[in-house]
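Tutorial, part two.
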Amino acid sequence: MWIHRPPGPDTADRPVLYLLHGSTTDASMFERWELGRLLDREMCRTGVPFVFAAPDGQAFDGSDTEWGDAQDGRFRIETFLTTKLIDAVEGEDRRPAALRAIGGVSMGGYGAAALALRHPDLYPQAVSFAGYFKVDDPSGTFGNDPDAHAPDRLLDRPDVRHARFFLVEGTEDHTPLRSADPPGEILGEADRFARLLRERDMTVEVRHPPGGHVFATWRPTLPAAVDFLVDGWVPG
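Running the prediction step on this input gives:
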């Protein structure tokens, strides 16, 4: 994993943002984007320092993991995220859930939404950049049980009603979702999911910056995303 800590000792009252990369890449994408410098700027602006950690979600066999556990046991990415990763990042300074969030881009944006809903006791806030909210599983990670990993199928669980979502989708993001049911593209997913959240009186904000499936599209929304997280980071 790649981890970025602001200056000073780590404490249990310092929030943590877990960031998930997209498919066909790894956590080094955030370093290439100089995300540490960009988020440091936002910490200075808001006065709220936070840790962010980006794990590696690749499988040894090149499978598209969807940030989940493979039904056939090939890999256990979700289990790693929800156990060993948190232990490694937070250590003895374990955070209350209210000071934790999960975010990601593309496949990672899907993973952030799915994991926030599957583990609301761990991640009460999610930020999704160009994510999708139905299962698009080209490697068959979830086998015959995809609905258990579909954000749009998890919203009626009583323990998720307080989850908060910040969704970013470029106005020209035509990235295909070929294995989804039904197939489609990323464009329109944010508004579709936001509508489902609002029908349930859940908190959601949506941004539609001009552009496609690239960091240059999402970068201008970073201040709003950080403001959203800061508003939700309250001691539990």
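DSSP finds seven helices and nine strands in the chain. In part three we will examine how such features are distributed along the chain.
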